[in-house]
């Protein structure tokens, strides 16, 4: 009986003495609601997000989506930390940021260490070559005589290495503008680039007739994009998903996507999804 009373006394003392309590980590949802603000990790990936070097202002699909998400949740957001595509996972795992506030490609390696919202959109990935290229089959690129270009640390880099393991490489440093990949192609520094049609479309607007797709059933992929979230934070993910679902149903997501890349970014229900992931 004395032993039971002693245990009870110790528990009561611990409850009254903060120094004796085990510090329970605050959840991301609790922190966001308490502060009224979402801390965003980000990187430049036109047309999803672009930072004007003169005004330092952000624009793109991600800005319009985050404006709408936070307005509906009665929250605000800030661009807290610039990350690289390869360091985005670590930034949400360590909870330096609450989410990566632009959609990124959902891949199996990323899913093992981070969480994702429901897909926001899908885009088609293909090989792009110079307009005057004589290549007729993507398999021709898979040899050391040809070079594929990509940005280090990105999902397209991983896909390129998987699909073209024997090709040479013309890699670009992390955080390089996506346009640099296509510049490598048209300036003969590389023979091809594996990219989605949105980035290729943006580049083609200002460089008409310079590149063309090399479609192939073995390499064309339709892949999902979503917001990257911290692992094991289900209430926060659910909060974001519920808002995204409402935005999908009332047509808000479709309007935002059409505003920036109507012919190249698609809603999940409007896309035929190739389930071969990376």
Describe the structure.
With 278 residues, the chain is an alpha/beta fold. The chain has a single domain (26-278), classed as D-Maltodextrin-Binding Protein, domain 2 (3-Layer(aba) Sandwich), CATH 3.40.190.10. Helix content is 36%, strand content 23%. The chain contains 10 helices and 12 strands. The protein has helices spanning 2-16, 28-35, 61-72, 88-93, 108-113, 155-163, 179-186, 197-206, 234-249, 252-261, and strands spanning 37-42, 50-51, 58-59, 76-82, 99-105, 115-116, 121-130, 147-151, 168-172, 192-196, 211-214, 221-229. Strands 1, 4, 5, 6, 7, 8, 9, 10, 11 and 12 form a 10-stranded mixed β-sheet that branches. A hairpin with a 6-residue loop joins strand 2 (50-51) and strand 3. It is elongated and about 60 Å long.
Classification by helices and strands: alpha/beta
The number of domains: 1
Mean pLDDT equals: 86
The level 1 CATH classification is Alpha Beta
**H and E order:** HHEEEHEHEHEEEHEHEHEEHH
% residues in beta strands: 15-25%
Q: Sheet with the most strands?
A: 10 strands, mixed
List keywords for this structure.
about 280 residues, D-Maltodextrin-Binding Protein, domain 2, disordered N terminus, about 35% helix, disordered C terminus
Helix-strand blueprint:
Layout lengths: L1 H15 L11 H8 L1 E6 L7 E2 L6 E2 L1 H12 L3 E7 L5 H6 L5 E7 L2 H6 L1 E2 L4 E10 L16 E5 L3 H9 L4 E5 L6 H8 L5 E5 H10 L4 E4 L6 E9 L4 H16 L2 H10 L17
Parallel strand pairs: 1-4, 1-5, 8-9, 8-10
Antiparallel strand pairs: 2-3, 5-12, 6-12, 7-10, 7-11, 7-12
């Amino acid at each position: 009986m004395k032993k039971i009373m002693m245990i009870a006394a110790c528990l009561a003392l611990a409850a009254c003495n903060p120094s004796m309590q085990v510090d329970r980590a605050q959840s991301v949802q609790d922190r966001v609601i308490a502060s009224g603000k979402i801390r965003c990790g980000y990187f430049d990936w036109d047309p999803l997000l672009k930072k004007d070097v003169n005004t330092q202002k952000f624009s793109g699909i991600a800005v319009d989506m985050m404006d709408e998400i936070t307005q509906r949740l009665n929250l605000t957001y800030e661009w807290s930390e610039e990350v690289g595509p390869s360091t985005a996972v670590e930034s949400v795992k360590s909870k330096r940021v609450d989410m990566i506030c632009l959609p990124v490609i959902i891949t199996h390696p990323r899913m093992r260490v981070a969480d994702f919202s429901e897909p926001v959109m899908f885009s088609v990935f293909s090989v792009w070559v110079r307009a005057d290229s004589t290549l007729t089959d993507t398999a021709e690129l898979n040899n050391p005589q040809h070079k594929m270009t990509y940005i280090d640390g990105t999902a397209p880099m991983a896909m390129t290495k998987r699909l073209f393991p024997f090709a040479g490489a013309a890699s670009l440093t992390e955080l390089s503008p996506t346009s640099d990949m296509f510049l490598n192609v048209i300036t003969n520094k590389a023979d091809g680039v594996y990219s989605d049609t949105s980035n290729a479309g943006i580049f083609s607007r200002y460089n008409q007739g310079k590149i063309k797709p090399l479609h192939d059933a073995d390499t064309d992929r339709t892949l999902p994009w979503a917001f990257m979230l911290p692992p094991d934070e289900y209430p926060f993910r659910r909060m974001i998903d519920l808002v995204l679902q409402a935005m999908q149903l009332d047509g808000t997501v479709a309007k935002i996507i059409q505003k920036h890349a109507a012919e190249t970014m698609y809603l999940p229900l409007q896309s035929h999804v190739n389930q071969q992931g990376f």
